[in-house]
From TrEMBL:
Molecular function per GO: DNA binding
NCBIfam families, alphabetized: lp_hng_hel_AbrB, PRK08577.1
SMART domains (alphabetical): SpoVT_AbrB
InterPro entries according to UniProt: ACT-like_dom_sf, ACT_dom, SpoVT-AbrB_dom, SpoVT-AbrB_sf
All copies of domain ACT, residue ranges: 58-133
Domain SpoVT-AbrB: start-end pairs: 4-51
Natural source organism: Ignicoccus islandicus DSM 13165
Listed Pfam families: ACT_4, MazE_antitoxin
Protein name: AbrB family transcriptional regulator
Gene3D superfamilies xref list: 2.10.260.10, 3.30.70.260
Superkingdom, taxonomy of origin: Archaea
Length: 136
């Protein structure tokens, strides 16, 4: 289901998320949303996060464009109890190279290098970069 609303920006650049949307997505006062501004697409994506106290990480992955490779990456993250919040993937060269940017929530004890090692160990993964998201 989609809800489409037109929102007015106030003098400080703020918008109010309508109650119907907040209720539907369980966005509560004091909770967190992740904002991703894609300047190439001229769009903003807001995604609620659990705000469970874990750390937010952006994982950039370059890998062979093969059937099932994204599922394999997702399974590896799930095995580490890392929750995927948003995933944005594209094929750079069909049948050759794809890239994904995945925003995840991981426990505070999780070391970023552990995620890099696990994902890098998947056959066909060419490059992995894990970057903490500031401001959480």
């Amino acid at each position: 289901m989609r809800i489409i609303e037109i929102l007015k920006v106030d003098g400080k650049g703020r918008v109010t998320i309508p109650r119907t949307v907040r209720d539907a997505l369980n966005i509560i006062e004091g909770g967190y949303v992740i904002m991703i501004a894609d300047l190439n697409k001229n769009e903003i994506l807001l995604t609620p996060t659990s705000g469970s106290g874990g750390k937010l990480l952006e994982i950039r992955i370059l890998f062979n464009d093969e059937r099932g490779k994204l599922a394999e990456i997702s399974e590896a993250l799930a095995e580490m109890n890392v929750d995927q919040i948003t995933t944005n993937c594209r094929t750079m060269r069909k049948g050759e190279v794809a890239e994904c940017t995945i925003v995840v929530e991981a426990s505070n004890e999780m070391d970023e290098s552990e995620i890099e090692r696990k994902i890098s160990g998947i056959k066909g993964v060419k490059e992995v970069l894990v970057v903490p998201i500031q401001g959480h």
